Automatic annotation (TrEMBL):
Keyword Oxidoreductase among UniProt keywords: yes
Residue ranges constituting the DyP dimeric alpha+beta barrel domain according to the UniProt record: 71-153
Cofactor(s) of this protein: heme b
InterPro entries in the cross-refs: Dimeric_a/b-barrel (IPR011008), DyP_N (IPR049509), Dyp_peroxidase (IPR006314)
A family per Pfam: DyP_N
Keyword Methyltransferase: no
Keywords noted in UniProt: Iron, Metal-binding, Oxidoreductase, Peroxidase
GO (cellular component) term, any one: cytosol
Record protein name field: Dyp-type peroxidase family
UniProt GO molecular function: heme binding; metal ion binding; peroxidase activity
The organism of origin for this protein: Streptomyces echinatus
Family statement drawn from the similarity comment of this UniProt entry: Belongs to the DyP-type peroxidase family.
Amino acid sequence: MNTVDSGNAASVRVEIDDVQSGALRPRPVPYAGKFLFLHVDDRRAGRALLRRLLPVTSGGLPDADRGRDAWVAVAFTHQGLRALGVPQESLDSFPQAFREGMAARAELIGDVGESAPAHWEAPFGTGEVHIALSALSSDVARLDEELEGARAAYEDTPGVRVIWQQEVRQLPTGRTTFGFRDGISHPNIEGVGLPGSNPREAPVKAGEFILGYPDETGGLPPMPVPEVLGRNGTYVAVRKIHTSVAAWRRFLRANSSSAEEEALLAAKMVGRWPSGAPLTLSPEHDDPELAADPHRVNDFLYREDDDRGLRCPAGAHIRRANPRDATIIGDARMHRLIRRGTTYGPPLPEGVLDDDGADRGLVGVFIGAHLERQFEFIKAEWVNDGNFIGYPGEKDPVAGHHGGTGSVTIPEKPVRRRLRNLPSFVVTRGGEYCFLPGLRALRWLAELED
């Protein structure tokens, strides 16, 4: 088993070849992908499927010699592990959030109103989702190659059914449906051998992302038993999010007096310009040249560069999701996540202010070793409340649930600006908590016996 360390004799060594590629590798740019949910009618069939899937899964980091980046990942809900016949002792050893599932914890994470599970797209939240397959690639041709083996595996296994699928693809603009470049940030993870996107970020302990290694507390994160099942695995929150692009554009138009003001207001709410250039480094105008430089686009901190939020507001989307070194209540490093967003559906044509009825948005994947203090904490405390930055009750202007009553504060001199009556710009269409096991764990699951 190959291991990687970070160049420090005292550092943790991660068994990188046993970690599924879908866990740690940044999303390709450009990208094409597909998500599938499967239901297991017969445990023996489910195990047979896993044996057929083993050859198409991979571990480790990108191979520069391959030229193109692609992978298939296999994850399981708690009901899925039960459907495979995992012993009760092992099932009970998983954390409560994973055992209950995302739908049961919807109110905690802000999935209320039109985002509540009662309105979710089937089969999200029904307990019918057992296995989640995901495939991402740098182009469609390679994606089809990667998926062919997986497709043959599930189509040739009676007793296993595909119950949901979603294609995702980078739009021709290279941006999200809201018009902003995405997928810029990736954490610096100790012992992985893959540099983070922010050269000023100190390495985050591997145990924040992969089970079996010390985390930021200095201890080992709770791990399911037996060890072969838990080690080198991680948890994944998968979410389908509809974006209300027309509502976003109408709000910007109603609260601006020119196209330039609209662009600045949107940037203040997101924290970056459409190109990806951060407000912290380019507060007055977009800077595509800065955005195109991978060594500069993420090279900033908040306490050092913009502690008062006069450039990038404390309540901006990217600053809430990752406060970096900002002055906040709590320790941001305890809540670091790997975020991987992928776009689905057609773009709304430029300038259109009315909804055309098309389903568009993103399938978000949020990866970490601690569901409760990473994904759930960020959703409950940072996205849907502003107490940690001194704005109690004020939510993320882009990702928060507002329902027409939200507000956003934008620091300015001499007087700050406060916008009210924000609608919700995103609607949750569904979500699942999944466990992404290591490759040895996949083999263990495939060889389970009754």
